[in-house]
C-alpha cells in the first residue's frame, strides 16, 4: 500500500511521536496550524470517515479516549479543536482516517 500514514505506522517514515498503543498512533503535524497541532490515526487503514461501519467503529471511540488523555497531559484546558477532513473536496490530503487536534490559541468560526 502506498499510504503515507501506513508508512509512518510501519516505521518507514519518521514522525515526532506523541503516543502509541496497539490501535492508534498520535504524532505532531509537520506543518502545524496552531501552537499545539497533532494527529491521531488508527493503525488499521481506513480511508476516511465514510468508511466507518459496525465492524470498525469502535476505533473512533478509542481515538477520542486517547485525545482526551493527550489534551489533558498537554494542559489544553482552555480549549482545543478536533478536525476530520473527508475526501478531496473536504480537504483530506492523506487518504487514511485521521483527526487533527489543534490548541494553544483562540480558534475562529466558521472554519475555512
TrEMBL record:
The lineage of its organism: Bacteria, Bacillati, Bacillota, Clostridia, Eubacteriales. CDD domains: PKCI_related. PROSITE patterns: HIT_1, HIT_2. A motif (Histidine triad motif) lies at residues 96-100. Transmembrane segments: none annotated. Coiled coil: none annotated. GO terms for molecular function: catalytic activity. The active site is at residue 98. It comes from [Clostridium] methylpentosum DSM 5476. Pfam families: HIT. This is Histidine triad domain protein. SUPFAM superfamilies: HIT-like (SSF54197). Gene3D superfamilies: HIT-like (3.30.428.10). Residues 4-112 form the HIT domain.
Amino acid at each position: 500500500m502506498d499510504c503515507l500514514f501506513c508508512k509512518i505506522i510501519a516505521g518507514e517514515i519518521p514522525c515526532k511521536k506523541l503516543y502509541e498503543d496497539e490501535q492508534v498512533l498520535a504524532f505532531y503535524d509537520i506543518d502545524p496550524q496552531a501552537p499545539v497541532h497533532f494527529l491521531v490515526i488508527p493503525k488499521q487503514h481506513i480511508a476516511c470517515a465514510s468508511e466507518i461501519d459496525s465492524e470498525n467503529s469502535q476505533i473512533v471511540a478509542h481515538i477520542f479516549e486517547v485525545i482526551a488523555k493527550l489534551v489533558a497531559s498537554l494542559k489544553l484546558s482552555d480549549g482545543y479543536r478536533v478536525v476530520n477532513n473527508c475526501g478531496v473536496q473536504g480537504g483530506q490530503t492523506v487518504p487514511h482516517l485521521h483527526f487533527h487536534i489543534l490548541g494553544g490559541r483562540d480558534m475562529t468560526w466558521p472554519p475555512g
